[in-house]
Amino acid sequence: MNRLLEEFIFKRLPNWMKLVNGGLGIDYPDDAAAIPIGEKYLVITTDSYTVTPIFFRGGDIGKLAASGTINDVLMLGGTPIAALDSIVVEEGLEEDVFEKILNSMFDIFKVNGVSLIGGDFKVMPRGQLDKIIITTVGIGIAEQLIADKNLKPGDKIIVSGNIAEHGITIYAEQKGFLEKSDLRSDVRPLIDLMIPLFKKYKNEIHAASDPTRGGLAATLNYWASISNTAIVVEEEKVPVRDVVKNYCEVLGLDPFNLASEGVAVLGVKSEVAEKILEDVHSIGYEDAEIIGEVREKESASLVIARTSVGGYRIIEPPVGEIVPRIC
Amino acid sequence: MNRLLEEFIFKRLPNWMKLVNGGLGIDYPDDAAAIPIGEKYLVITTDSYTVTPIFFRGGDIGKLAASGTINDVLMLGGTPIAALDSIVVEEGLEEDVFEKILNSMFDIFKVNGVSLIGGDFKVMPRGQLDKIIITTVGIGIAEQLIADKNLKPGDKIIVSGNIAEHGITIYAEQKGFLEKSDLRSDVRPLIDLMIPLFKKYKNEIHAASDPTRGGLAATLNYWASISNTAIVVEEEKVPVRDVVKNYCEVLGLDPFNLASEGVAVLGVKSEVAEKILEDVHSIGYEDAEIIGEVREKESASLVIARTSVGGYRIIEPPVGEIVPRIC
């Protein structure tokens, strides 16, 4: 995927085309793009949502699309104000299915004060598309961008909740293994968490991401590489529920590689890390933990986990089929 | 489609959710949405592009997506500055196909000074999608919005070139009838046409659209209904090439219903209509014509064509399969 992006996209574009007015552009693949407007930034994100099954325990593709859109704007430091949607459905998709999905999407936008100001709707002939693809545009205003390249040695890494819940749920749904467990997707918008943090810690949050596609492993590897650092994680501090661990073991999966859709990963100034953690807990994200810290890189940028028995393992960026398929 | 939008979307959203800050929102289905920013407007559009075949005479889905994005921003009065793309491909799509499509898209953006500042890329399992869907976001800045509801009785209607060229080409490609004709899609960005007109006729262009899905019939019916007017078209003034007419006759199609992807329809103040037409010609759009005028509505908003033999026919908004399938 990275090779494709590099070879087919980044290399082909002249520099002026990659960004506008000194903002964040396409060769800086953060959660969103940004265009400076006066003293502030316009934050814009787009994402196409496909998921099988379209209804899953804990949500559906509509809730996923709206939450993901809001979270992508937030993770660049933006307050979401508006969204647009472009929906492509297979001819013959049942009206009540379509209605349920739209209502899920609208509800999330409505509760979070995000307007839906435009969109597009297309129908593809039967057989050319499996059910539905929702592409969303998220628009926000940021006083200050949280650009993940600003992560610094010494910073602490906080995760706001149990990881891998969405990824394992979808995987188990697909394989028919879900039934008797209490697994459910964690999909939700993180506006209640992030907006108070922006206000209180304007300059102390150096990086923020939602670990969706490729999970925590992808997020931290991307952070290390873009900020030219090494990240050391205490594996036993990373919050993963036992049921998720057990499923991962049986299915041969690593929770570090599985998507969360309702978790924020934050890279914060060491001095305020404990205070931020307390605030995150008091907002209601009780499973949040400080899971590690950022170091100077030695030979290469990388992510290492210290295991409970005192050894180390390198956390590789995840590759392969699971990444595109379930997010 | 209108019923779906009304029933499932517009009715469900509280008023505050439909727009931002007094701009143009989702229940005003123009070519794009707008958010006031200071004295200007941020113009935002999104569209999902699907077309069969993905390579057609005169272009491909990449050129179509980039041109359509630029044109949608222009038709609301915006100068396009940036775009984002979200591409979903079927697993196994050949790299050289993907590369050709991307290059077509990039070329259009590049030549027109539009940055590509972000995007998303997803792969769907084989069989769940036929080849590729490109969803784009277009972003522009408008000094003055061209909101089609401002069309007024007395205004003249100008089309910038021969209509129906894209629609008939795609249709003929699909049916295998294309070979010996000189049909080709007219897909192209209209930045060279529109930007000079914005500058010179800031207050005299009351409405602008590119007659894509549903063709001129859909555009004019939408204009009449949103501006509460009647539009009378001189049928013989509407520029349609003979080859297109002949194809339409054989295939039982009406050129008024077929998409153009490189034509602007303008509703302009009567006093400057001839001057604007001259300018449009001198910019290089030599087939442009004044095709009709706007009247007070009598019993209902509608579009009427005066035929060459002096009779009248009502131009209905097109419905049915051809509309979603070929655009």
Structure description:
With 327 residues, chain A is α+β, with helices and mostly antiparallel strands. Chain A folds into two domains: 31-142, PurM-like, N-terminal domain (60s Ribosomal Protein L30, Chain: A, 2-Layer Sandwich); 148-314, PurM-like C-terminal domain (Phosphoribosyl-aminoimidazole Synthetase, Chain A, domain 2, Alpha-Beta Complex), CATH 3.90.650. Chain A is 30% helix and 27% strand. The first copy, chain A, contains nine helices and 14 strands. Chain A has helices at 2-9, 61-75, 95-111, 165-175, 191-200, 215-227, 242-251, 273-283, 322-325; strands at 33-37, 40-49, 55-56, 59-60, 79-90, 115-124, 132-142, 156-159, 205-209, 229-234, 265-268, 289-296, 302-306, 312-314. In chain A, the strands form three sheets. A seven-stranded mixed sheet of chain A has the order 9-11-8-12-10-13-14. In chain A, strands 1-2-7-5-6 form a five-stranded mixed sheet, with helices on one face. In chain A, β1 (33-37) and β2 (40-49) form a beta hairpin. Chains A and B meet through α1, β1, β2, β5 and α3 of A and α1, β1, β2, β5 and α3 of B.
